[in-house]
Amino acid sequence: MALIKLKKGFDLNLKGQIKQENVADEVTATSYAIIPDDFTGLTPRMEKKPGEHVAAGEPLYHDKNDEKVKVTSPVSGIVKDVVRGERRKIMAVVVTPDGSNDNKRFDTKATPKELLLESGLWAMIRQRPYDIVPSSEVRPRDIFITAFDSAPLAPQLKLVMGDNEKHVAKAVEVLSTMTSGKVYLGCPKDYTIDNTGAEVNTFVGPHPAGNAGVQVANVKPVNKGEVVWTLDVVTAARIGKLFNTGTVDYSTTVALTGSGFIEPTYVKATMGCSLESLLNGRLVSDDKDKRIIAGNVLTGVKESIDGYLHAPYRHITVINEINKKDEFMGWASLSPKKYSIYRVFTSWLMGRHKEVDLDAKLNGGERAIVMSGEYDRMLPMDIYSEFLIKAIIAFDIDKMEQLGIYEVAPEDFALAEFADTSKLELQRIVREGLDKMRAEMC
After folding, report:
1. pTM score, two decimals?
2. Which of 163, 289, 378, 388 has CB atoms 3.0–4.6 Å from 403's, for a disulfide?
3. What is 2-29+108-245's CATH topology?
């Protein structure tokens, strides 16, 4: 076991943490949905039509460019709707459960590759470079599993897994046959999964220490022409359970966090459930507008009460939209309630890591990049992140390659985006750069 200490990064201590680690009763919903945008790199082509029955684990659609890669239904029921947006882009596939509990059974004697592709669990793995669902034809150099999430208010993956931790060793055994290298497991200092067969690395440091990309960069970085896979330990446990039982388990434990909840807590649910079923009766009743985020505050997706639980299917954050639209003196205020990770307000005298109640206000507008090294202080990777962002904006392919474009994903820049004095949408810039790069190189 190797100990890797990371100094760069920052732990944002937000109000709305879960105090009690007990799990509330299971939540059932009247509708579930798969959001194709959660599976980056796939272009959906439907296999089921509205009105048709689908079993849990049965394909809803496959990738237009790689028909072997499929996305399956989390529940058994009737395909209620295929929601389309501009240019008929599929925005969501909605399934209404029928209570039949019809689970598709898989042949565990099939090859690991065939079983992962057919079950839909292949689509929950990510590939570096490009941070996309892997191609069915590419064999990875190594596979990296992260056993913790260091994002603000993130759930403990050990608790999310529950009894399924026993299936991780089987997942490692299966994944080991699919790579020419090693399977690595990244753990925090206070939690290790023993006897999995993986090479274990312990990471100590602030967020984004839990990001798979950061762990890859500090263990064995991705070079041009190489491919690695990344996934979290919850997905690994789901893979192991598939090979042990022959069925896919789409149940999960969801963390409901943030200052918008009366009592932040964990609840049992099923992947893709409606947010209304999760939030009903749990939100603070006041005159403030609430922002519902599927995920954490740094990388999550803004949703409405009519939305659904997005990938990775285990976290909902609710914060205030804007507390004070017209604030006296604005950024020049001397109020001790003003917060910054830098020493620009008097609040730093009370400690940088005190619990804070932040809203969704941007507090500024977009401006030119300030070359101050602030991105680098938030990203524990051996790259020049500010120069990489400028190269992506200019779409200078040679410089993008030299500066580490193959190692990064949008989530790696989420903390830098929060700290950015230039207010640039760094995650969007990186995502667009990766998509352009893939279109150019593939």
Report:
1. 0.94
2. 388
3. Rossmann fold (3.40.50)
